[in-house]
Amino acid sequence: MLESPLHAFDLPARVATPTAQNRVVVSELGNMGYIVLRGKADDESFMQAVADVLGQALPTQPMTVLTTTAGVVLWVSPDEWLLVCKRSTRDSLLAALTAAVQDMFAQVVDNSGGLTAMRLSGPDHMLLLRQMGPYDYESLAVGRCASTVVSKTGLTVARTDEAGVVLVFRRSFADYTWRLLERTALPYRLCITSPAQCADPVFTPLFETV
Fold it and tell me: What is the pTM of this model?
């Protein structure tokens, strides 16, 4: 059984149903696959090979969040993308992508053991984010993502609807990130809930209970 990087906080035992008093709501999405893709966006062979596996071409516009049949693709940099997928499909996608770009100037890396995520929503989730980091989160449009810093760590913020965001961060900083979030969210009556009650339209369907 895959252990959550936040297991020490026993979040499942603290799950509750959000009420109107809970201005910020959070759910852990701790069991997804993460595949890093590196290659040249102007390399037609590379772009086509990846598109054949994912069903859609990798996004070239900065900060794009792209939904595919394989999962969610986050634009990271001009030559790097992060594919977030179901854990159960990770191995087959990894094998297919590796085979597709074989002998190309490209790289496919499984980083599932290095990353985790949580969904943040509620009426004041933007206020909370504003307190945690310097990024102008209100400017982040639906369908966009941004890599930024919060205090002494970094994370990627992906926005797929108006109700909330998904935070993707390193598992090695999960303890620090959670303590920072929980402490900062005290004035907002933070509610820890299940993924179903704090659902992201794109990422939550990729979460699987094991």
Answer: 0.95
